[in-house]
């Protein structure tokens, strides 16, 4: 059978629904060691807060009726003005709903999941991901973030650069060796689909010396989810129109950036919802009103007296997050897939694309629910008035603590007797008196290569100016390198 017809064969017989990919699991189940791992992905449109009928390939909107309770919308021909009746979903049906922030929105998804399927393989195995583009009008490509693609640069997945996009209806097999161990991720690398849902974890397992035994290894994917599709936002930013993020027809409210404590302008677009593993609560009106409370948050189930590893990946569109777990010290053990010498921290800051691994001990902790927080770095508005940061939250649930109940915990105070170490600040330090001390990334040390390369006597210096620029009045945040903007090529160079 020719390779092409083999792909067609697969397309016809692969079921589309939950049979291909179970709902997202937030912990790693190590696979058996194999030379090759195969994954079958269908990239398609999907909707948040929708129920999928696999038999009829149809969907129906659902709504939240209480904390973690969903109802299916019903219609009645005899009463066309009444279509708000909800019939409850079973727990099993509820598990297949892509919740996001509990509101309806189109997304682009692999096998109808958000985040997309987790890839877990052993180091140096061959990974084969068979991707079929089920979209009707958009090309796609998938990038394997953290894999260097030695000898396989054409598998890097940058549409228009390392390959032609996979067109609607086409299939393409990515095949590469998992040469880098650690916490990585995959995401769309053409246009704006990454932040519309085309992302997931890519974990390359290896034997790791000098680590305690972990009862479980959790995955934490962070995302600043928007109510609009990413293309609308990207166009607005490119047109220097992000001041009008509350709507081109909204004459009563315009959006202005926030600042970090050091004055750096951040937050070019309003924060809407912070998702952890595809679930989070929406802030109304940029956080001035209360969040919606019925969205079930991601929950990490733990037992007392053991260690848990967390592999944190930022899939954010534009916000950096400061990550912490209330009343738990973090032991940082890896960044971007590279093991580092252990560093104790109260929190760490993670930017888009970065990964941090840490572990916690659950010894001698009161049995209850604790917040895992991912807070933005928003400190003031442009006038210097203090603002509260937004956050994505998840629940660390000790077995025996109440189920379906938000934690009541607070983060530990940073004070004179107990300073907080914050790893990976994008500024030199916090202000004096805040009792927060930055450990910047250049202060981290490799756990494996004790002798880092030293500077040679002959060296050259290059300045590369990464910049967000534009018209101050309208709040442009267009990115450039040495004053040049990236314009995607129409095809890979030949
Ligand atoms: Cu990437």
Name the descriptors:
mainly beta, Immunoglobulin-like, oxidoreductase activity, 7-stranded mixed β-sheet, 2 domains, 3 helices, 494 residues, 6-stranded mixed β-sheet, binds copper (II) ion
Structural features, described:
The strands form 7 sheets. A 7-stranded mixed beta sheet has the order 17-26-24-19-22-27-28, with no helix packed on it. The protein is 5% helix and 34% strand. It has 2 domains: 3-49 and 98-205, Cupredoxins -  blue copper proteins (Immunoglobulin-like, Sandwich); 216-443, Immunoglobulin-like, CATH 2.60.40.420. The chain has helices at 3-13, 91-95, 230-238; strands spanning 36-47, 50-53, 58-66, 69-74, 85-88, 106-110, 119-122, 126-133, 142-145, 171-177, 182-188, 199-205, 216-225, 258-259, 265-266, 273-276, 299-302, 307-314, 321-325, 330-335, 338-345, 347-350, 355-361, 369-375, 380-381, 391-398, 420-423, 436-439, 466-469, 478-481. It is globular and about 80 Å long. The model is unreliable at 1-20 (pLDDT under 50). Copper (II) ion binds next to strand 9. Copper (II) ion (CU) binds at residues 143, 145, 187, 353. Residues 96-207, 255-401 form the Plastocyanin-like domain. Belongs to the multicopper oxidase family. Residues 474-494 are annotated as: Disordered.
């Amino acid at each position: 059978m020719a390779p092409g017809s083999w792909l067609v064969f697969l397309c016809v017989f692969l079921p589309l629904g939950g049979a291909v990919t179970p709902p997202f699991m937030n912990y790693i189940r190590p696979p058996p060691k194999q030379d090759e791992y195969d994954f079958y992905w269908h990239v398609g449109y999907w909707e948040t807060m929708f129920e999928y009928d696999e038999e009829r390939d149809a969907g129906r909107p659902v709504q939240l009726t209480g904390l973690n309770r969903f109802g299916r919308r019903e219609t009645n021909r005899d009463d066309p003005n009444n279509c708000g009746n909800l019939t409850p979903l079973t727990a099993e049906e509820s598990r297949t709903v892509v919740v996001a922030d509990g509101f309806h929105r189109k997304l682009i998804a692999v096998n109808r999941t958000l985040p997309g399927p987790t890839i877990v393989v052993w180091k140096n195995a061959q990974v084969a991901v068979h991707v079929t583009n089920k979209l009707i009008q958009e090309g796609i490509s998938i990038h394997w973030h953290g894999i260097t693609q030695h000898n396989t640069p054409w598998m890097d997945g940058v549409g228009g650069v390392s390959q032609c996009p996979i067109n609607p209806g086409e299939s393409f097999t990515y095949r590469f060796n998992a040469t880098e161990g650690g916490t990585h991720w995959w995401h769309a690398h053409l246009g704006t689909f990454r932040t519309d849902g085309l992302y997931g974890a890519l974990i390359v397992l290896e034997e790791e010396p000098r680590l305690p035994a972990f009862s479980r290894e959790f995955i934490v994917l962070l995302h600043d989810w928007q109510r609009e599709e990413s293309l609308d936002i990207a166009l607005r930013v490119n047109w220097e129109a992000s001041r009008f993020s509350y709507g081109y027809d909204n004459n009563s409210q315009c959006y202005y950036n926030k600042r970090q404590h050091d004055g750096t302008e951040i937050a070019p677009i309003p924060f809407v919802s912070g998702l952890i593993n595809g679930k989070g609560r929406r802030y109304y009106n940029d956080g001035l009103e209360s969040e919606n409370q019925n969205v079930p948050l991601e929950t990490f189930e733990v037992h007392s007296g053991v260690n848990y590893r967390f592999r944190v990946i930022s899939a954010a569109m534009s916000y950096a997050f400061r990550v912490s777990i209330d009343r738990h010290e973090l032991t940082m053990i890896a960044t971007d897939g590279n093991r580092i010498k252990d560093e104790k921290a109260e929190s760490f800051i993670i930017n888009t694309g970065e990964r941090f691994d840490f572990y916690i001990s659950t010894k001698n902790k009161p049995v209850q629910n604790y917040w895992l927080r991912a807070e933005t770095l928003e400190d003031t508005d442009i006038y210097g008035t203090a603002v509260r940061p937004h956050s994505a939250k998840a629940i660390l649930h000790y077995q025996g603590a109440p189920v379906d109940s938000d934690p009541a915990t607070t983060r530990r105070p940073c004070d004179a007797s107990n300073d907080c170490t914050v790893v990976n600040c994008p500024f030199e330090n916090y202000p004096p008196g805040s009792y927060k001390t930055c450990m910047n990334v250049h202060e981290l040390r490799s756990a494996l290569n004790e002798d880092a390369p030293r500077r040679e006597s002959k060296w050259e210096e290059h300045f590369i100016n990464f910049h967000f620029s534009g018209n101050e009045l309208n709040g442009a945040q267009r990115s450039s390198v040495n004053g040049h903007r990236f314009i995607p090529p129409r095809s890979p160079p030949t």
